[in-house]
Amino acid sequence: MVVIKWSFGNSICSKKQIEMIKLELKNIVRNPLVSILVLFLFIFILFASYNGKSRVNKQLEGIELVKNKENTFYTNHKNNLKSIEEGTKKTPKRVFEDPTNPVAMGNYYGGTYLTVTPAPLSVISNGQSDIFPYYSKVNIGGTNAEKNNDNFENPMNIATGGFDLAFVFVFILPLLIIAFSYNILSSEREQGTLRLLLSMPINIKTWLLKKIVFRYFFLVLLISAILTLSLAIIGVNFSNVTYLILLSSIALYTLFWFGLAFLINLLNKSSSQNIILLLGTWLLFVLIIPSFVNILASSVYPSPSRVEYITSKRAIEKEFEKKEEAILQKFYEENPSEKDKENNTTNRFRKYWNKNFILLNEKNKFMDAFESKYENQSMNQREFANKLSWFSPAIIFQNTMNEIAETDTQHYLSFQNSTKIFQKEWTEYFYSKYKNHQKLTVEDFNNFPKQKNN
Amino acid sequence: MTLLIAKKEVKELLRNNRFRLISITLLILLVFSMFISWNTYKKVQKEHQTAQILAREQWESQGQKSAHSAAHYGTFAFKPIPTLSLIDNGLNKYLGVSIFLEAHRQNSASYKQITDQNDLARFADLSPAFVFIFLMPLLIILLGFNSFTTEKESGTLQLILSQGASKRKLVLGKIIGIWLTLLLLLTPVFLLGFCFIVFSDYEKGDLLRYGFILISLLLYYGIFIHLSIVTSVWAKSSNFSLIILLSFWMISALLMPKLTADISKKTHKTPSAISYQENIKKELADGINGHDPSSEKAIAFKDSLLKKYNVKSIGKLPVNFYQLLMQAGEKHETTVYKNAMTQLNNVYIEQLKVHQLNAFISPTILMRMLSMQFANTDLQSHYNFTYQAEEYRGALISSLNSGPSGTVDTDFFKKNIKFKYNPITLSQTIEKNASNLMYLTIWWLLSGLLVILSVQKNKLK
């Protein structure tokens, strides 16, 4: 930003213009309204950053809690296993507590937690972080990415939405710009100085443009400074490229609103009419277009009915139960050696899991096909809404901030997807041990599948 | 005289192009949003009814099994959609639609609509309540911000006063004028809302509830009318008056609600899901487990039974030990879950109190809470649903645990009790939110007092 400012200053600024900039600066600094607005902006940005920070901290605490839980479980069992191998302890009678049993360690109380690590700039936008869970327990039985690990928050507070930086920039910043620029021309007329201005040998449009451009750079620099300061105060690391992207998108969004203010000033109406017009466009872009796009998207691609989903899921599970025999039979036909093994087992636990492992994969496929019907419905709606987001810069800006903060829906959905993929890897690991009647060793405990890039 | 002024005011306002444009836009938004929510309401209601019947069918035809396996199989309770969600959908989008009822654990309502929607669903929801509560005040501000300032600026005020009109009558006339214009605009919309409710399967009290929403809305609009007049009387220029009023709207409708949400999270911390569940697990482990007859607690329970009936072995007991053990476990589990949920709900209630407190700065928060409460789409009515579902679960599971000890089938399941939901009654609602209604009235009175003060303080010259 600083660079742009200087190049601007060097190339087209004559002495007279430097004088003008000085004068403008004086005007702005002396205006009590401006200092009040700047003060409020500072308070808002600081408070919003602080809110973001406490949200991220809560998430980090949660992640630590689940990781601790997982570690305690496996460390205890590893120690038990050591004692068993050394012969100081006996193998526990209960299967679930047996550290040598791969199924016991990969299922039931065992399992690993996959987590969403907050992005470096996660503080800037709550996004969808209050409705999608940031961790999921994975074991042989499945994942709970979509259920049971709900983010607890007061629904009233979720519905109201938080006071985050995205709110300050998307909603409040335009209002500030409006307050900054609604009466540049009209105030001159209302004070009677417009005639004086017109009598001078200057083009009124260029004059207005210069004023607007000056205010624009003033505000963008100010916001960048305040934001950087606030993030530094709450201890967020902003020395990365994404921070520059954030600053430039703020600059672009600000540009849009100043441009609009310029056009409306040109209409040459009274100050009150300017405010009403500007506020009208603010309502239009920030509230009305987004809600219309939402209505349109959810009418063209209605959200799936979860009420219907619940009962259909039961029906489809029953349907699968009927298929189970056929699947098993087919499997044994293809793998006759397994059939012999099966006939020779008397162990109830192994009998159950022999069957279960064969069915698990098929069941996952079957259920995924069913679920994807519903998922696709919401996906279509989201894609459609994204296409229409170009109608309002507010939507684009909000989406950009969510993406930078990695709190957008897509991020959470791909997390859910990756848990599903990981779940297969996890199951495969324990199944191969189980199939070959291998007992788990202390060494195995260090080699359990782990979440990547974390 | 007052009426004359009012008439003139209405005429002038109706002639104003700006007013016409804005009111037509708002009318379109209102009618459009009513049709949309009517459509959604019909669809959701139908889905809900089918699901409830289907879930029961699935329960009855679950096949031969022991009664306790059936309890594990479980069933669902679906949350009915209240008729007045037509007007205010409240928190419904953010709350689960159904609860899975099974043995041993109390589940919270799952599948929130919001997780299936596009991201914009969180920007703003174009519901009738949104237009009524958030946008209408803007129209009022536009109606009133220059009611006196233009007269001052053009000098007509002195003219009117010199002709013997009293200031009191002038102010009253203007207020009535704004009211008349507003009602002219709103009455058809209110009637439309009324028609929508009448043509849906409304329950006793729903029309009265709608009436209460309208009364609170009128009180709420009254506050904005008063404030507009006061500002217009005090301000030197229309410009200044507009800025002050718009700032108030922004603080009341935009800033305060969001600030409050975050403040309430700080003053009363919501536990994280994981720590909540860990606590439950810990407490469950402290009690008796119905599936584990070899545990210390179960043996103690057995001994107490043997002692009570004065026999030596389980086989000689006149009651079924395993059923009783199962029920004892169930009882412990129910208490643990109930305590945890009550604690969580108490945190939420405390947070709502923070919202209520901040309503002294923002009447919009008050109005929003009031309209949700009357529409039965607030947190309390959701809690009412989860509470009843839990009661039902308790009754169903205990009837299963004390059922026949062999296998049971459809004949038995058909006799199981059905879930019947009783929504919060109107008198309960009024009892719960009388304080909110009172605060809104206080706002109305205080703002009215300001009007009187502004007339007496000789600001109109």
TrEMBL record, chain A:
Keywords in alphabetical order: Membrane, Transmembrane, Transmembrane helix
Transmembrane segment boundaries: 28-50, 165-185, 213-235, 241-263, 275-297
Give the molecular function GO annotations. Answer: ABC-type transporter activity
Keyword Isomerase (UniProt):
no
Tell me which GO cellular component terms the UniProt record holds. Answer: plasma membrane
Report which superkingdom the organism of origin falls in. Answer: Bacteria
Query: What name goes with this protein?
Result: DUF3526 domain-containing protein
Give the organism, scientific name. Answer: Flavivirga rizhaonensis
From TrEMBL, chain B:
A Gene Ontology molecular function term of the record: ABC-type transporter activity
What is the protein name given in its UniProt record? Answer: DUF3526 domain-containing protein
Looking at the UniProt entry, the stretches that span the membrane are 21-38, 129-149, 170-199, 211-235, 242-261, 437-455
Give the highest taxon in the source lineage: Bacteria
**One of the record's GO cellular component terms:** plasma membrane
UniProt entry keywords in alphabetical sequence: Membrane, Transmembrane, Transmembrane helix
Residue runs in coiled coils: none
Taxonomic source organism: Flavivirga rizhaonensis
